[in-house]
Amino acid sequence: MLLIHCPYCGERPEIEFRHKGEAHIVRPENPAVSSDIEWTEFLYFRHNPKGPHAERWYHTHGCGRFFNAQRDTGTDRFLKTYRTDETP
Amino acid sequence: MRFNFWNLAKQSLTGHTGWPEQWRDPEPKSAYDVVIIGAGGHGLATAYYLAKEHGIRNVAVMEKGWLGGGNTGRNTTIIRSNYLWEESEAIYEHAMVLWETLSQELNYNVMYSPRGVMMLAHNEQDVRIFKRHVHANRLAGIDNEWLSAEQAKDFCPPLNISPNARYPILGAALQRRGGVARHDAVAWGYARAADRMGVDIIQNCAVTGIHRDHNGVVTGVETTRGEIKTSRLGIAAAGHTSVIMAMAGLHMPLESFPLQALVSEPIKPVLPCVVMSNTTHAYISQSDKGELVIGAGTDQYNSYSQTGSLHITTRTLDAICELFPITRRLRMLRNWGGIVDVTPDRSPIIGLTPAEGLFVNCGWGTGGFKATPGSGHVFAATIAHNQPHPIAAPFSLHRFRTGRLIDEAAAAAVSH
Ligand SMILES: Cc1cc2nc3c(=O)[nH]c(=O)nc-3n(C[C@H](O)[C@H](O)[C@H](O)COP(=O)(O)OP(=O)(O)OC[C@H]3O[C@@H](n4cnc5c(N)ncnc54)[C@H](O)[C@@H]3O)c2cc1C
Ligand SMILES: [Zn+2]
Questions:
Q1: What is the pLDDT of residues B151-203, one digit of tens each?
Q2: Are B41 and B51 contained in the same domain?
Q3: CA distance to partner chain B, nearest, from residue A85 (Å)
Q4: Domain ends where: B342, B365, B394?
Q5: Are B166 and B291 within one domain?
Q6: How far is the CA of B365 from the centre of ligand 1 (A)?
Q7: Does residue B260 sit in the same domain as residue B170?
Q8: Does residue B312 belong to any structural domain of this protein?
Q9: Distance from CA of B47 to the nearest CA of A (A)
């Protein structure tokens, strides 16, 4: 089980959190004019790297807030966690 | 040397010292007609059918570890074809038919055992969706039948059908032709048969780069043992597909997660079939050695670590003890994890890619062992003709753009 540092609550066990997928994915500004390729990338395509991964977590059974993390997917170690209004 | 009664008798007289190696350990050549990345069941089956059905024998299968050491050697070996959508029924049933004669085809006992796969319904939603599956499968000519809780217990006596259970059993869907096979034997059987037709299986050799010319056409791969030229490259690397596609500059609709399994100490035969409980995330069967083979759910986060969290397996064991109270005092012997490549619609991706000469077979996620023969068969045809085999065609990468998804996730919410 991961030990996760919530920027608001501190270290808590993973079962208090939900993983919410890759972070920093930006919805195309105007879907009506975005190309099929752009829209498909946004909806379904993910980086899924082996190594540092930017991801969102949600502290379901805690403060109920979203935050971001950088985690190495090769070792499962967190490099850092940060608020959504902070840059990585 | 073929495996048959005559050779077995001869070898037993000489202390079994005369059996030759099952496959060669060749040095990589500088060029091949086709290179496959990943010597799991899917990659090896692809090489086998390329050689056998398409006469393409100048083939290399590149493996960074040992053959069959990925998910092929780590899975709980459940085989079934009772999926919901027609596209899925076609490919999984194609595989099922190949399973039925695979041992004879490969001259290798893959221990395919159609002992029945029973999927338990624990609530009204389960009942409705499983009945829908039963009807859809019947229309497609695929066996799947609905059992009451009592009938389920008749088929699998250790099952606890008490209405007081935490997750009571309201009924079950049973595919009698479903079952299990020996995972390692599938990899070894395909490896041996492909090797005999001239396929080079190159172990301990990781692919580290993909070469493309100025038009984007594939020209070869970079490996830890040098460069290898090829104009046709097939990827069958399961959890590592995103990493390899990134070498060609391509992005994929995939995420990789840990999936775990564990086995108990061996006991006398108690479980006559495979039992799956998707609602409680547990599946179980008994191996011929007597171990109970138990599959858990995936962890929630992307990972390549090949280890999962303990709370996932603990939760699965809670469910197993509730379903089968006789297992409560059993000890677990081993547990392990594999890395599974999951697509948004939980269906695989098989076919061509935006790079000419580059083919991909991935996204089998938590349930691709059962498809091994069918997947290799249609992927080989796709590579040989540079055009999707009709059964593979709906599983193209393009479906994410057209929106023609094959949504087995919403259909069943099942893992296997
Ligand atoms: C715990 C667990 C339980 C499962 N249970 C079931 C089940 O009951 N039923 C079912 O149908 N499915 C099940 N599955 C899923 C099934 O195991 C897989 O879908 C299937 O085995 C995938 O086969 P494959 O040949 O594509 O992949 P693999 O066997 O993983 O082979 C891919 C190979 O590619 C190699 N590779 C990766 N990167 C490189 C590189 N750069 N260079 C060279 N080689 C590389 C890897 O080393 C690996 O050997 C389960 C999976 C797990 C982990
Ligand atoms: Zn918090």
A1: 999 999 999 999 999 999 999 999 999 999 999 999 999 999 999 999 999 99
A2: yes
A3: 22
A4: B342
A5: yes
A6: 8
A7: yes
A8: yes
A9: 27
- A14 and B309: CB-CB below 8 Å? yes
Same domain, B161 and B278: yes
pLDDT of B256: 98
Closest ligand to C-alpha of residue B307 is: 1
Distances (CA, A) of B287 to B76, B79, B265: 10, 14, 11
Helix H, strand E, coil C: the string for A5-41 is EECCCEEEEHHHCEEEEECCCCCCCCCCCCCHHHHHH
B85 in a structural domain: no
Looking at the structure, tell me whether residues B326 and B195 fall in a common domain. Answer: no
What mean pLDDT do residues B341-359 have?
97
- Identify the bridge partners of residue B121 per DSSP, sorted by sequence position: B171
Full residue range of the structural domain in which residue B293 is found: 117-176+255-342
Closest Cα of chain A to B341: distance in Å? 10
Which atom of ligand 1 lies at the shortest distance from residue B80's CA?
A: 11
- Collect all residues from A whose CB is shorter than 8 A from any CB in B: 1-2, 14-15, 18-19, 21-22, 36-37, 40-41, 43-50, 53, 55, 71, 73-76
- Tokens linked to B25: 């350990």
β-bridge mates for residue A69, sequence order:
A55, A81
Q: What is the number of structural domains in chain B? A: 2
Q: Are residues B244 and B274 in the same domain?
A: no
- A3-83 belongs to which CATH class? alpha beta
Overall pTM surpassing 0.95 (yes/no)? yes
Q: How far apart are CA A46 and CA B399, in angstroms?
A: 16
User: Is residue B259 domain-shared with residue B338, that is, in the same domain?
Assistant: yes
CB distance B136 to B146 below 8 Å: no
Which of A2, A25, A48 is the best residue to mutate to test the B interface, defined by the most B CB atoms within 10 Å of its own CB?
A48
Instruction: Please give the number of the atom of ligand 1 that sits closest to the Cα of B183.
Output: 21
pLDDT tens-digit series, residues B43-75: 999 999 999 999 999 999 999 999 999 999 999
Instruction: List phi, psi (to 5°) of B375.
Output: -65, -45
Task: Give the closest of B243, B309, B310 to A50, CB-based.
Answer: B243
State the Cα angle at A43 between A41 and A47, rounded to 5°.
55
Which CATH number is B17's domain given? 3.50.50.60
In a domain, B86, yes or no: no
Which residues of chain B make contact with A48, given a CB cutoff of 8 A?
A: 242-243, 252, 254-256, 302
